[in-house]
Design a protein that fits this description.
Layout (H helix, E strand, L loop, with lengths): L10 H11 L10 H13 L14 H12 L3 H11 L4 E2 L9 E6 L3 E7 L5 E6 L2 E6 L5 E3 L2
Antiparallel strand pairs: 1-6, 2-3, 2-6, 3-4, 4-5
C-alpha cells in the first residue's frame, strides 16, 4: 500500500479553496479524475495522481493512461487509487464532505467527483463545466 491518507486539521478550508478556484476543464490538468485528486491533495497533502498526472492531454490519452494504470477506465482507476491509499468504499448514504463519489453521467459515462461542503451535492468537472449532482444520485463512494 502506498501512503495512507490523513486529513489535515484545516481540511474544510483547503477543500473550500479548491472548489472556489474552479479551474477550467483541461485533460490531464483539470478533468474529473485530476480534479478529484487535487481535492484529495488539498485535504491530505498526498498526490494520489502522481502515477498519471501530466501523462495525457486528450480524452483518448486519458483512456490509454487509465488502461495502462488500472487495466480499465475511470471506475477501475478509482478502485486502484482508493485501494492503494487505504480509502474504504462506503455506502453512498454515508458519503460526507470531501469524500470521492462515482456518478454515471448519461453522456460521458462514469465520472468522479467530491462531496461538496454542504454534504448534499457532489462537485464534478467536465468539458461542459462544473456540475453539482445530488449525492444520492451517485453510485459509489470512498472515504477520504
Amino acid at each position: 500500500m502506498k501512503q495512507s491518507l490523513q486529513r489535515r486539521e484545516d481540511w474544510p478550508e483547503k477543500l473550500a479553496e479548491h472548489f472556489e478556484a474552479k479551474p477550467k476543464f483541461k485533460w490531464g490538468v483539470s478533468d474529473c479524475a485530476t480534479s478529484v485528486c487535487d481535492a484529495i491533495r488539498a485535504m491530505t497533502d498526498v498526490d494520489v495522481a502522481a502515477d498519471f498526472r501530466g501523462k495525457y492531454s486528450s480524452g483518448l490519452g486519458a483512456m490509454k493512461v487509465m488502461k495502462k494504470f488500472a487495466n480499465g477506465g475511470v471506475e477501475e482507476t478509482a478502485e486502484k487509487i482508493t485501494a492503494e491509499h487505504g480509502m474504504q468504499e462506503i455506502p453512498i448514504v454515508f458519503a460526507g464532505r470531501g469524500d470521492v463519489v462515482l456518478y454515471d453521467d448519461e453522456a460521458m459515462g462514469p465520472a468522479l467527483g467530491n462531496v461538496s461542503l454542504n454534504g448534499v451535492t457532489a462537485v464534478f468537472v467536465s468539458p461542459k463545466g462544473t456540475s453539482f449532482i445530488p449525492v444520492n444520485k451517485c453510485r459509489r463512494a470512498w472515504r477520504v
